[in-house]
Design brief:
2 copies of one chain form a homodimer.
Chain A lengths: L1 H13 L3 H5 L14 H14 L13 E4 L13 H13 L12 H5 L3 H6 L1 H13 L2 E2 H14 L15 H12 L3 E9 H12 L6 E12 L5 E11 L5 H9 L6 E4 L5 H8 L6 E6 L20 H9 L2 E4 H4 L9
Parallel strand pairs in A: 1-3, 1-6, 3-4, 6-7, 7-8
Antiparallel strand pairs in A: 2-5, 4-5
Helix pairs in contact in A: 4-7, 8-10, 11-12
């Protein structure tokens, strides 16, 4: 009898569900991170909050980790990738819009006249966003985004945008999840633009993606079936002071771990650090013009100025991309 | 050596995390449900979508179940419990507001003059909601809600409101989760009112609670730490056509299973059923005046009229509380 029970036990052990297996902690976490203060601080923090009996122990349900996306989990240069999607989509939709050939900002964009486009300013960008992000059902928009992730290429790296994610950060997401954290994206990007691909690329399901959104309207067809249509009206901007608001709205509890890379993440980091107990705040500092980009205080995209001062003053973790990361993108592994 | 490995295996088996244990399917699911068409349809649906190789199989990630709260998971009579919370809180806060003694609608409420209160109409209710739900940090509001769940008593049943949850629905939540579903609340109730207690009562964590919300503002104190303050301005009403919108915004994918009890749930059920593959829509019909309440087409609270017609026409599952449920509340087990 003992034998049968033992065999059963071993069989059950082998059949453990993925979640249980994922709990096993890797022997060498964060392999793409150079051994330095950033890697050390992360591992020390995770060890302290997960060790039962530790004064810093945090129950698994409260292990909430929030990550900015643009510039933190993937590249954001030379322009935010969602804007690249919008530009590409204008080209796709132009066939159905012959009037765009003579109408700004579409005319400039279609003629690759970047100077002419920039003259149209913020108004031009908003018109492009409305033309590419509204008047479409949520399902059709989802398909357009997925199609773009498969076919579009980044101008400098000539590869799909979803391959320009940071390998060290993918490892960090895995490491946190293996230690019982629930990982969320909290991004200024559009939530309907991010959700279609993030589960596959980051292992983060749609319901754990927080972002900016436009108004969506429910309408029933003749047959009483319903569909959701995206309208050209901004509903919520999940950036700056909007990030703690978005976290409160979507997640409903304060993270104990947050990572960003720009001034738009400052309030999220402040809100994270203002809670009780052990906490972690991190910033990715883009210092590697050779392998990726180098920018901070004077950048139009992903400006990092006030948050860098605050990180220095409060001794938050600042990742020096050039020195802290062995590789940048998964393809370099 | 084998012996040591066997002991290790058995030790590991004993240390299986809760999630893995919860996967075990109970031999007799839904014990508080009488054997009838409602119970049968639920079990048949869950069996079909979880059986590998079944034509109706649904991958675990897509097993999203959405539940209304008021009248579906807990009682909603004689008034929505959140309104009872607001009324009770006016009495608590009255000490700090001597001016309320002579000012409507507070004067009527404090004098238990329900006739006078009803004269103040919707405007009066909105004033009471603003006075009890705004001008407070999210953390202090959370404490007020938790305090109320411990101390307030329902006028008819004389027990805490959080004990007036439906035992058969608690079993249904457990049954779905044991079968790989992720359970969400999608309620017209305020999200900040629901989240503090739902994890303990329903096993549903804050990030899986979707509801109506007021505007919340991030503000930093002098020391640069931040806090979130609730303002007296409605931001989103998660009811009627707002429910599919709320599901899209918070969950980001269409449920395959939804349960409601009133016309406010109609669009959520339509949206759920309009997707491809196997789907389930259910309504709780309050037919038991003796053990709970009996109401439908003419009720001011939880009116069930159009959704009942649609459920009949489309053969959705309608739970007849009186005949389908052996017990109503957990205390009757």
């Amino acid at each position: 009898m003992l034998n049968r029970r033992v065999i059963l036990a071993l069989a059950l052990l082998a059949a453990l569900p993925g979640t249980a297996v994922a709990q096993a902690r890797p022997a060498n976490p964060l392999p793409s991170w150079n051994d330095g203060p950033a890697r050390h601080t992360i591992i020390d923090f995770v060890t302290r909050v997960t060790a039962e009996g530790s004064p810093d122990f945090v129950a698994p349900a409260e292990r909430i980790a929030a990550f900015d996306n643009d510039g933190t989990l993937w590249t954001e240069q030379p322009i935010y990738f969602q804007l690249a999607f919008a530009f590409d989509r204008i080209k796709t939709l132009a066939r159905q819009h012959p009037e765009w050939r003579t109408k700004q900002p579409f005319k400039a964009l279609l003629a690759r006249d970047m100077q002419g486009l920039s003259v149209t300013g913020e108004k031009g960008v908003l018109e492009i966003m409305a033309a590419t992000h509204a008047g479409v059902t949520t399902e059709d928009f989802r398909k357009a985004v997925l199609d773009w992730t498969l076919n579009a290429r980044h101008p400098r790296f000539n590869r799909p945008y979803t391959e320009l994610v940071f390998q060290p950060m993918l490892e960090l997401l895995d490491y946190l999840r293996a230690n019982g954290f629930k990982t969320f994206v909290v991004s200024g990007g559009g939530v309907e633009f991010m959700r279609p691909w993030m589960e596959k690329v980051y292992g983060i399901p749609p319901e754990q993606v927080v972002g900016s959104s436009g108004v969506v309207k429910f309408q029933t067809n003749g047959d009483e079936k319903g569909e959701l249509v995206k309208l050209a009206k901004i509903e919520f901007i999940d950036d700056g002071p909007g990030k703690p608001v978005g976290i409160n709205r979507f997640i409903g509890r304060r993270p104990i771990f947050a990572f960003g890379n720009s001034d738009g993440d400052l309030q999220m980091l402040q809100w994270t650090m203002a809670g009780p107990g052990a906490r972690f705040a991190g910033l990715v500092h883009h210092t590697d013009a050779e392998r990726e980009y180098a920018y901070d205080r004077n950048s139009k995209v992903g400006k990092l100025d006030k948050a860098l001062d605050e990180a220095t003053a409060r001794r938050w973790t600042v990742v020096d991309m050039k020195h802290d990361w062995k590789v940048i993108f998964p393809s370099e592994k």
